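User: I'm putting together a small comparison set for a docking exercise, and I want a reference complex before I start. The sequence is below, and the ligand is zinc ion. Could you produce the 3D structure with the ligand included, as structure tokens?
Assistant: Of course. I'll restate your input first, then give the structure tokens for the complex.
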Amino acid sequence: EHIKTAISKAALQYTKPEGKVFEYGTAGFRMKADLLNTVIFAVGLLAGLRSKKLSGQWIGVMITASHNPAEDNGVKLVDPMGEMLEGAWEVYATKLANAPLESIAEVYEQLAKEIEVDMGNPARVVFARDTRASGSRLVGVLNAALTATEVEFIDFKYMTTPQLHYIVRCKNTLGTQYEYGEPSEQGYYEKLATSFKKVMRGVKVQGSLTVDCANGVGGPKLRELIKVLDAAGGLDIKVVNDDVINPDALNFNCGADYVKTKQRAPPSSKAGVLDRCASLDGDADRLVYYFVDETNTFRLLDGDRIATLAASFIGYLAQKAGISQKLNIGVIQTAYANGASSDYIKNVLKLPTEYTRTGVKHLHHAALRYDVGVYFEANGHGTVTFSENAMKIIRNTEPQSPAQKQALESLLALTELINQAVGDALSDMLLVEVILAHKGWSPKEWLGTYTDLPSTLDRVVVKDRSIFKTSDDDTILTSPAGLQGEIDTFMLMFNKGRSFARASGTEDVVRVYAEAATRGEAINLSKAVTGLVG
Ligand code: NG1
Ligand code: ZN
């Protein structure tokens, strides 16, 4: 009862934005930062409940709005294995976030009963934030909610989103056979650096890599990582766009989302022809590569490219290690994946591929059904998961030759280099560097593996985006009635035409994706479908 009083008292310090309905979407709650106080408070309450429900396992709270503008912010919960919050709990989060402050303590108590939380259990929460100016105020709110509900917590200050996911997983596996690493930032860097050095044995990185850090938290963290890497494998990283002092610089004219959606390098880029470049997003969970070719044309290597590169390399190592018959490797994509990448996976890599709904939690879930699940969104968010069976095979296979031994060791090191908890731009970057070094490839050879179909991605502002409902893999509109038929008709009018529309989970828009054999056709298809939607 005194907890209820404490909740009420703390909650009433804040004011709920009038008339606003909150929803835990693709990436948690995300909006203008000044609207977030009561949402963060609710998330703090829920984090404690989630931990109690899971017998005191550590739960993560990340305060970030990723690639969105500097004045936005957001919050999401991290489950014990470093995964996104379980789907059913998103509904509870939404419920608590919309509860009136006067009755939030009752709603909290009711919810605890409804989901049968043993309130005698301990509750433990770790949290961190990106570099946004609003972050410190929001941490204050989170603090108030955790304190009112007597939750044990650790503030990890500034971190990339994947670093916090890593910490959560480490905390919960400490002392078990699934120990994931040292639950500290330094532990994170050391795990990456140690495994990187192992897989780089005998090969060398060619040329330097310029990394655009979106002026976000990835900048200072990448600099820390570089110290620990200590130029291993000859990796020479040039850090650019790492201004975290000027709050407006975040994601402005730079970063992975800018590069992917504008299909161009940041205007500030000084990279020369064929220079290898990469961009992180504001919380360093997305990564894209790019370069300018001999004709001065911008060339993007997006999440689809990273997925195909990773899948082909792991497939190659598995073959060399003589275990390819025992490992089923699958590639999970969303409908935003370029059709040419899906064809390449099916026809050249000869691996199974499937589409899931947008949002990494769906991809992650699907990936876990394979021994090796490679998943990336086209925007550069993704990772690779290894099943327990895969780990057993990799660890226990007796090598019959030095080559086989080395392949097995490389595979094992890859399982450590890859942040299996969640898509992680820093870890993914090292993965790409390792693979390019092994193949002796420049980004040009990487690009040469297949040719992307020209594509477009547009945002359409509509009156009510909630009427746009899609099938399981987002490709078919089930509502408004009849619209899909019209889109289908347009698709047939263009060579290799494919287009779909879905409501964004993070912005108040409907997204329209279109691809076709030529740029002109893709643009026209997009115009047609955009016209139908808007
Ligand atoms: P929405 O706004 O639901 O399309 C976007 C991305 C997702 C995912 C989330 C989370 C696209 C087309 N959509 O979701 O893939 O990354 O943001 O950040 O890139
Ligand atoms: Zn992000």
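Residues 26-27, 66, 336, 358-359, 377, 379, 381, 504-507, 511 surround NG1 (ligand 1) (CB under 6 Å). The two ends are 51 Å apart (CA to CA).
User: Thanks, that's exactly what I needed.
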